[in-house]
Amino acid sequence: MIAMTPPMGWNSWNTFGTNISDALIREMADAMVDKGYRDAGYTYLVIDDCWSKRQRGERGELVPDPEKFPNGMKAVADYVHSRGLKFGMYSCAGVMTCGGYPSSFGHEFEDAAQFASWGVDFLKYDFCNFPSGADCKTAYITMSMALKASGREILFSACNWGQQEPWKWMRSIGAHMYRSTGDIQDNFVSFRDILRSQLDNFCMSGNCCFNDIDMLTVGMYGKGNVALGDKCTDSDYRTQFGLWSFFGVPLMLGGDLRNMNDFCRELTQNRDLIRIDQDRECRPPYQIYHGRPQYGSTDWWTIPWDSALSFIRHLSDNEFAIGLFNLSDADGQITFTFANAGLPWQSGFGMDLRDVFTGEEMTSARDYLTPEVKAHDCRIFIGRLKKL
Ligand code: GAL
After folding, report:
1. Which residue among the candidates 183, 193, 352, 355 is catalytic per the annotation?
2. Banded model confidence at residue 99, pLDDT cuts 50, 70, 90
């Protein structure tokens, strides 16, 4: 079985776009191993759009661009596998990929067989240039069947940008993850809005089929293919990675792993955050509503109430994660109310917590947490019940 927990890996699109090659993929495979990503759980290395020639070959087959991939794709796959990683590729449900390359509409079974023959373990399946008279669900179930028919176990990463509410049907057509939104950009507003748009849908994400809110941009700092808008700060990235892992979604890194700075490498390899993301029960977080301030004046409430998000997530082995996210542009306090998480003071229970970023322990927390959370930043704790 694949994708029992959210898939983790790296994808070429966010940083490199069309500038991909055999050499780059090999270097990235080396970086995934040498810099600790593989051992932290990032196992899929995925080539996105723009890898093929502009035309199919004489037998109708997809042909890797000989300038970018002079040794063919099987050689790349073999190298990726030799480093203990899994190999992913990209096609599209329409008649051309977004970059204008041949794609799989009407060629699903041949293309799936070809991917399998190269040793592909993961297929991202995009939605550009989809014929207006065709049916989206049929296109995705057809590729899902084609992958099954290929005889190889291939993770199906459906990417139709949230069209036709994929959270309601992608699981039943056999996909392992589905893009639920448009493309991420490397700025805080973009990923804040992506996360918010899915708050009601995470309840339908779980084992074997996950809501995919797009590849991460951690570490890009305004460079690369999706660098638009205000350049991210370290706290923006802490919140991006904190949100993605707290919500238990696929963690597909998009930065250049060959030269991520220490902050971003440590952040994306944070053991507690990966443990939360990969929790085997795959439960969505529960939002703690504290409502609007009650006392008329709102002067003391510096964060707009809909930007101060607080959650608890039930994890396996009686652990819990608590996440406080300040999605506003102002510093302030965020309240987590234990009573609203099922622990009123009369229960006689609180929690022993550890801050996942600082390692700081907080024993016997009860009633409220009201930490200061800087603009665009977050606090995440992992912990256990404590009899007080
Ligand atoms: C978009 C997709 C991106 C990337 C791009 C390639 O449709 O959402 O993640 O794959 O196409 O052209």
Report:
1. 183
2. very high
Residue nearest to atom 3 of ligand 1 (CA): 183
Our answer on whether the CB atom of 89 is closer than 6 Å to any ligand 1 atom is no
Q: What count of other Cβ atoms lies within 10 Å of the Cβ of residue 367?
A: 13
pLDDT at position 292 is 52
Distance CA 48, CA 124 (A): 8
How confident is the model at residue 291, as a pLDDT?
Answer: 55
Q: Is the pTM of this model over 0.85?
A: yes
CA 115 to CA 46: how far, in whole Å?
A: 13
CATH number of the domain encompassing residue 120: 3.20.20.70
Q: What's 324's domain CATH number?
A: 2.60.40.1180
* End position of a domain, from candidates 220, 242, 277: 277
Which of 126, 212, 236, 272 is flagged as catalytic?
126
Residue 298 and residue 305: Cα distance in Å, rounded? 10
In terms of residue numbers, what domain contains 55? 8-277
Cα–Cα distances in Å, from 151 out to 119, 130, 172, 225, 384? 11, 27, 20, 35, 44
Please give the structure tokens belonging to residue 120.
């592909």
Could you tell me if 72 and 167 lie in one domain? yes
48 lines ligand 1 (CB under 6 A): yes
Q: Is the CB of 162 under 6 A from ligand 1?
A: no
